[in-house]
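Let's do one together. I've listed all components of the complex below, 499 residues spread over two lines.
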Amino acid sequence: MLPELFFAYFAVTITGLSILVITRKNPVHSVLWMLVLFIHIAALYVFLNAEFLAAVQIIVYAGAILVLFLFVIMLLNLRKEEIEQKFQKQWPLGMLAGTLFILFFVIILNKFAVFPAPGEYSIQAIQGEGNIMVIGKVLYTEYLLPFEIASLVLLVAIIGAVVLAKKKISE
Amino acid sequence: MNIGITAIKVVIVISVTMLHVAYVVYFERKVIGHMQARLGPMRVGPHGLLQPIADGIKLFFKEDIIPSGADKPIFYIAPVIGVIAVLASLAVIPLWEGFSIADLNIGVLYILALSSVGAYSVILAGWASNSKYSFLGGLRSSAQVISYEIALGLSLVGIMMLSGSANLSDIVRAQSDYPFVLIQPLAFFVFLVSMIAETNRAPFDLPEAESELVAGYFTEYSGMRFGLFFMAEYAAMFIMSAVATVCFLGGWNGPDFWVFSYVPKIAWFLIKVYALIFFYFWIRATLPRYRYDQLMGLGWKLFIPLALVNIGVTGLVKESSNPIVIKL
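Okay, and this is what the predicted structure of the assembly comes out as:
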């Protein structure tokens, strides 16, 4: 009963918070609601015995990406009229896309197996060896190639940022 | 039952820490006073011992001023975020064998995560105050905290590799023979400097540089809200010193011979923490403030590469002694 209650709380709150994020007029408030949202998602990961993922969710999303968002928004210093013009025109299109997405979910929902048989990585197996150990082993053996490709993509992004920043100085 | 015991632990740890925080302020004023050939606080109580309590009462009864044009809800909540983030980190600190409120397997990451949440309090306080000094202080501080967080995290990776765990109690147990500072001096150095920058203390206290920014991000705060920022800063120093003690200085372990074996474990832990807190004050009384570009250059061009080199060397040394066979 208790797990269901917890999950119900998180499901309802996460939905509510997502709505708050997209309806706030002040972008800084939106970012803050998103921060609360991310912390709730991290709590859901803890709930699933994925402690490592929860910590990374907070460190990477809340600690790095959202702070960057906040930085950009604060430095842009948007005026009220601009926000209302640019960011509120897309409501009809957004509603349409959202409705289609919900329809899509309703159609595929009964194709899901709710409690599939546990595979190789059951909760006991992960707790026996430690969260970080299991993830590390899988990343560096089974998924080595995708992992390296992802790091290459990130490297390209870093180099791109450096190139963009350098150009301005030389002009 | 279990929840009850945990709740009692939480209350004890938080109240003891808050008392420590109050007296760490006194300790700082005394230490810096004597370093500058002054006496420090002397008036309230014998040798000024009641000064922190007088300060606390004063802050409590001061008027709470909110600048016009401030974003009220965010202005209210910013210091609270800071205090919560810092106090929540206390949960995973192992004070002695078997005593930590939550013995998490990801203890190190938990502390890093909370310190990144703590950065929000500074940014939001700066932004919500609707003042240019606060805003500049907030921007500076967030850039500084984010940069040094990387060096801080990377310097702890070597420790996690050596102890094979991110659980703080396991890290201390792995140091029962000798503290890790002996084999990770480089990482310890990077951690020490980064922890000063991470907690916005001198010589890296640019976010609150008095000569340029009045008081930085909390310029517009007064009364107990200002007190909350103060508490968060000193509690953060305590947490960072505790993490350094746990990860590099062997936590609650102490020499185990002669009369030393009768000393309670918590005493070793506290002695090490206070030595590090004294180090904070010593540095503050000794060094002038850095310039902002020097600070960023130091973080990105020196400490992050040093920490990376340290990780590489640690990995090489560790694996050359017991090679792992990788199955593909």
